[in-house]
Design goal:
Rossmann fold; 15 strands; about 55% helix; 6-stranded mixed beta sheet; alpha/beta; 6-stranded antiparallel beta sheet; 19 helices
Length: about 550
């Protein structure tokens, strides 16, 4: 239950603290006094969106903090799954900075809004005036059935199987689309691939062949120049080597006279050896140069093939052609293996579909089992709420899988005897919606382990004896849940174990909303004003005391 609520710098609230009673808390006040503001602040703890427009003072951050007792409600699993510290008293805090940035904390651990919603949805439920409109939607009606059926395990299993099926089906569909496109391109890709394979491309081959062709095309000139170079170095008549031999001979002679010339001799001898070696290599290279027109033509053909392929595929070198060949090979191979891949993907999608259908059947069975009990219980409660001729029929249809199952739930309602039930949104008035919603909340309360339930004017459109019965229902629910009820009806206000009054304080330069817990005498006066207006008569005051006295007697029983 909500044991403490702190609101700072929110809307018309400068700072407000509230420690609600364990049972039925009544909140009253004039329209516009700030009751909905408090509800909005609690909504922030449940993960609702907010922005800087909620700041009372735009230069300070807003803080909403709630301390909620969760002992005995068996929600430890959620804390474990979200990796949060668990304690019997959970502190939930929301902060909105001056820049509009929002932060949320659970037991001082930062969390995102999704985690905040998941955790606090197990602690508190708010019925807003908008919920009565939601009651007409099939989605909301389905949620009611699921809550009554307590089929969370089946719903969780179905959603897991639904996600698995969607993933398998999407993969199969994508593979089919790819297969269709790839088959259209297969012949062309296969032709290109085989052409490149036939070319037998080798890395760096082009550069090597281009160099060889250059030599072959200039063979006569190269051979002639190598011959001239050789003859300069070594021929029978006159050459560099002959001159160098003379140099060595002279240096050998004088080095015998003085060893100071020995180094010059050694250098000359080394040069002679090097030149002879160079001459030999030039001679060998000359012998290697062939004038081979056939080989040159073969190389030209090979290079022309490479150039044509590069132009055709708009690439710069053989390495890019090889990469393209490998890429085409993968595409061709994938098409050749498509049938196996498609068969496997289809088998997986079919198996996932069968598992989904099994989960859907189990979920549908859990829902169908409770339809009659819901109709019966609500029928009895509507009778107690002054609608003896009202009837509610729940119609279930099955269709295609959706994230919530294969079922479409429709609440068919009739408020009058002999009138065929129709879609709820088409036939129910405001007061009928309120009574029906009260009946639904009442039966669901016993199905949910929920610490706190908040009602925002669920009594709209009712009065008199019906309001008294709705108050009795709230008081009954308060034995197992903490109830916070915002109301304008004195019949309900008198049922509370605690009564809070919201009002506007105009004493300062800026209006603020405040709340105070009423004493017994203050409660008498407030309820009397709800009965008879601003200046209640003695009979209104007496009536208010009687209402509170009756509540006290009923509580004592």
């Amino acid at each position: 239950m909500l044991s403490h609520l702190l609101i700072k710098n929110y809307a018309l609230i400068d700072e407000l603290e509230l420690s609600p009673d364990r049972e039925l808390n009544i909140v009253t006040g004039e329209t516009g006094a700030g009751k909905s503001i408090i509800l909005g602040a609690i909504g922030l703890l449940l993960g609702n969106r907010a922005d800087t427009r909620v700041l009372y003072n735009p230069e300070q951050k807003c803080i909403i903090e709630g301390t909620i007792g969760v002992s005995g409600y068996q929600i430890e699993r959620i804390f474990e799954e979200e990796e949060l510290d668990y304690s019997d008293s959970c502190i939930v805090r929301r902060e909105i900075g001056v820049s509009g940035k929002s932060r949320a904390f659970v037991n001082d651990t930062p969390v995102n809004l999704e985690t905040l919603r998941r955790v606090t949805s197990q602690m508190m439920d708010i019925h807003s005036q908008h919920d009565s409109v939601l009651l007409g939607s099939n989605e909301y009606q389905l949620e009611i059935v699921d809550t009554y059926a307590q089929n969370e395990a089946q719903l969780r299993a179905y959603r897991s199987d639904y996600q698995a099926y969607r993933a398998k089906k999407t993969h199969y569909d994508q593979l089919q689309a790819e297969a269709s496109a790839m088959r259209k391109e297969f012949d062309y890709n296969n032709f290109l691939y085989e052409e490149l394979v036939k070319a037998q491309l080798v890395p760096d081959e082009q550069e090597s062949l281009e160099q060889e062709l250059t030599i072959l095309e200039n063979a006569e000139d190269i051979k002639e120049r190598l011959q001239v170079a050789y003859e300069y170095l070594d021929n029978t008549e006159q050459s560099v080597i002959d001159f160098l031999k003379g140099t060595v001979s002279n240096l050998a002679y004088i080095s015998k006279l003085s060893n100071q010339y020995e180094q010059l001799l050694q250098r000359a001898q080394s040069s002679l050896i090097e030149l002879r070696d160079l001459a030999d290599e030039i001679s060998i290279e000359q012998d290697r140069v062939d004038i081979d027109d056939t080989r040159a033509e073969t190389i030209r053909e090979r290079l022309n093939l490479m150039y044509q392929l590069q132009t055709k595929h708009q690439v710069k070198d053989v390495a890019a052609l090889i990469a393209l060949r490998d890429e085409l090979g993968l595409k061709v191979s994938k098409v050749l293996n498509l049938d196996d891949a498609l068969t496997d993907a289809k088998a997986q999608a079919d198996a996932a579909r069968a598992q989904l259908q099994s989960s859907a059947n189990a979920l549908s069975a859990s829902r169908n089992t409770v339809l009659q009990p819901i109709e019966t219980e609500i029928g009895h409660l509507l009778n107690d709420l002054g609608m003896p001729n009202a009837s509610l029929k729940i119609h279930a249809e099955t269709g295609k899988p959706t994230p919530t199952g294969v079922d479409t739930i429709s609440f068919l309602f009739s408020a009058n005897k002999g009138v065929k039930p129709q879609q709820l949104k088409n036939v129910a008035s405001g007061g009928e919606f309120s009574r029906l919603m009260m009946a639904i909340k009442y039966i669901l309360a016993s199905k949910r382990s929920l610490p706190t339930i908040v009602f925002d004017e669920i009594d709209a459109g009712v009065s008199g004896e019906i309001a008294i019965k709705m108050g009795n229902m709230m008081r009954d629910m308060a034995h197992s849940h903490q109830i916070i009820a915002i109301t304008h009806l004195h019949q309900i206000a008198g049922q509370g174990t605690a009564h809070y009054f919201v009002y506007k304080d105009h004493s300062a330069a800026k209006t603020v909303s405040r709340i105070k817990k009423l004493t017994l005498d203050e409660r008498v006066n407030e309820i009397a004003q709800m009965i008879g207006g601003k200046n209640p008569s003695a009979s209104a005051l007496k009536n208010a005391r009687e209402i509170l006295k009756q509540r006290a007697v009923s509580t004592a029983r």
